[in-house]
């Protein structure tokens, strides 16, 4: 017996205070997902991981990145060569060594702030009791079913959480036992939502189900519970007709849903639920996004009768004596803006006001033992794939059968062994017969034949879920209840020979030697080497993807300390180095065979780098994997994949949630077409400027103000100083509206730069405080007093419009002084006052206390209502006069005498620069003006810094799902229905796999509408014509050869994909116009008329005028004819500029077309006339001109 080695405390820094600061920064992104409470609990968590094959190494890696107090690993089995295909911390020299010892150095190096150790020898009860969570991975020879059941019992008796996970080929399962009364303080990790109340009503309680409605209104002799679904619907309709007086035709009766029947019943006094009253809350906005059972704290609601009682929380339907309390809610079935609370019938009518905030409440769950669950399992319903309905039950039967085989034989079935597989099927048949269920023998046979194999894709999926499951000990997120199963056996046919023993052995066994060879010879592009990119490179290394072809990777970013908690290829020694080079180096250490194919770039993929990522580069690629974190880059990459017809593998994460998608040309939508929508369209300007109602609006306002105050103005000044007066004024004159603001800013900062001092900085800060937090608020109140009514006679200050409260300067108010200090410090940076260090808070407070508070002078405020069309700013004569005066003032400046200043560049990760402190201070002062809850520094950093909550577990899992789709592509699968778009949520145990949709097609239709014309409503019709019909983004009109513009126009309209009767009216390359069609007959007529008048003219003056008219018309005629004869390549390069890739043999054009409406067919039948109310919009594919 070997005792566990005492863990060694490992620190990368001898100074403890510095190390703590490092750790806090390391976890900043993870904290965005987990929150402070879970992070604190993680720091006390002690985890043991047994087994270090693919599942175990992934689990241990992800746990160490999260930084629990202790991680211990154990695996005494000897390393085999095939282990190198899934365990990324093994190399060839480790073969024959114990796995635990072989992985120790790499695992210990992941997180020097976690106690890490390797245990060798026997697993005893005393050992298990040292840990708060125990994870067993795989079904090793030393852990048969009976032993796992024993370990589970020991853990349960000790209060230790027990998790067991396994991988059998392309199947993985996880079992969780968190014991009795496990507390979950946050079931899903979603942010607590806030609402604005617009009305409160006392109404009859909604029916829970149709049975309640029928029981309340049918005679007692009806046995409602024995009625079928159709009968219940039929009687529900009869009751609505007989008691509520409603009438439905036969078609409507058939289409009515149960929910609609209940809505009708609740909305009619004769059929409403008379036994119970509840409160009905209606909220502002389109939907509240709450769920039944959620708890909402209501505040600031005024009812006819005052609150009484001191009950803090009311259950749903409970009699309430107070409206401003916390309520358990029930959501409305069909109205996403409303929900129901307790009975408020004694509080009278609603008067006004009201906000609400969601409150997470703890729930407790009980779990059964492994022994109980094996034969009477509870299987998570969150794994959904409608192509595999019911497969989880079948996988569980196969799992138990494998465990029975293992228990009897002390080993798993031999690879591809028919006799062993038949024995497992016999076990499975017996289990199925006992349950009275069928059996998919082919599936169980695959589970048995490939039980000893593993791929890194399945291991990554498993390890992400298992590590997250272990962290649920903290009480955040919902543990698995109690088994979860997932498989991808659709990838596996008969398998290979099973005789390959190197790192690629299991891949060859599962998919065949041809698959391995094709993978090795692949030429692909991995874009991004951050969190996703690191995980992808690990997958790449394990299977040698591209080792005999080309592994093209790129990333222009450098490694920061905050990356280390999720980008697992990087260590502290990599901080400050390029991600692409560092990640490629580590991947090649994992698998040295990658070195021959590795092609590392250090630049962004964007239009201006197309001289590097050339047409040939793209043509040679087999596929593309995106590992990006912004929508603009993804859309650009999507466009390149469409243009070059390359498969694209996409993924993205947000906290515990992630999704993946595969985009196959001509078979699926492109990324831009199929990508999930983002978070709305941002915050309405009127909300952010005048009517904030939640802290998010205040933080976003502060971020915008930071740009205006510290970035834009100083940047305008620096532009003047560097460019000189003449060029600066030219830039201003190019856009007078923006130019006026630049002139004002440049002059303001020119004056400030000459008198830079701490006093100047504090005065600037003081002026901003008075203007933003006092003057503008008073101006708004002056124009819209508290009792203001809108045009409909309802109170102006209601719902989302929170009445503002000005902040009067008080030098004893610490929040006010904080704002002055942080603002002055940033101005000191801009003006160069902080060269010897930032001023102290006390120094700034002392200066501010001596400044006289100016008197408020009212200004008129005009506000735009949300949803109203924003008025376009006009440049008035007054503005023009000011513009000219400021130009004159600027022209007098001697730029050589101007000192340099430093525009503030917002930096979210530097805690010493006061930027996040300023955002926090200014946002909370803004919140105080509307009595909105203040937020802490971390939340302000996350929102203002656009930081995406990111954790290693989710990233690892979703890359596994992506690589399953890569496997399918390499296998040459043609059936698109076998590919999947995946959505996962590790917090709530969700895995949803869906078939990709078809590519979006453009089709012809008539859009009907109306518009106002002279006070009348005029009906309009617009014919949207697709030529060709049903084309997709993958279709192009290809024209070969360099030719004249006139020839190109004819070549386009006569292309086989297009119909007759079309005319090219324009060709464009982005914003550049290449060709615009003009009717030459107009100018020929003008010339003819001018010449006739010239012939009749008698005076020299008239002759001169008419000759000029004729000459002008001729110039247009010549220009039109010349345009027709100009070569397309010459015109393109002149107007659009050179191609970034000079060897690209084509360029792209957008083409506008017109059509003859008199042609017979589709158009004439649907749009009989064409005028200003009957228009035509022709949509056509992009034109690709092959000029070389």
UniProtKB/TrEMBL annotation:
It comes from the Eukaryota. GO terms for biological process: protein sumoylation; protein ubiquitination. This is Ubiquitin-activating enzyme E1 C-terminal domain-containing protein. Belongs to the ubiquitin-activating E1 family. Pathway: Protein modification; protein ubiquitination. Signal peptide: none annotated. GO terms for cellular component: cytoplasm; SUMO activating enzyme complex. One of its GO terms (molecular function) is SUMO activating enzyme activity. Residues 692-941 form the Ubiquitin-activating enzyme SCCH domain. Keywords: Ligase. It comes from Bigelowiella natans (Pedinomonas minutissima). InterPro entries: ThiF/MoeB/HesA, ThiF_NAD_FAD-bd, UBA_E1_SCCH, Ubi_acti_E1_SCCH, Ubiquitin-activating_enz, UBQ/SUMO-activ_enz_E1-like. Residues 1-24 are annotated as: Disordered. Residues 33-489, 509-1002 form the THIF-type NAD/FAD binding fold domain. Pfam families: ThiF, UBA_E1_SCCH. Residues 1-11 have a biased composition (Basic residues).
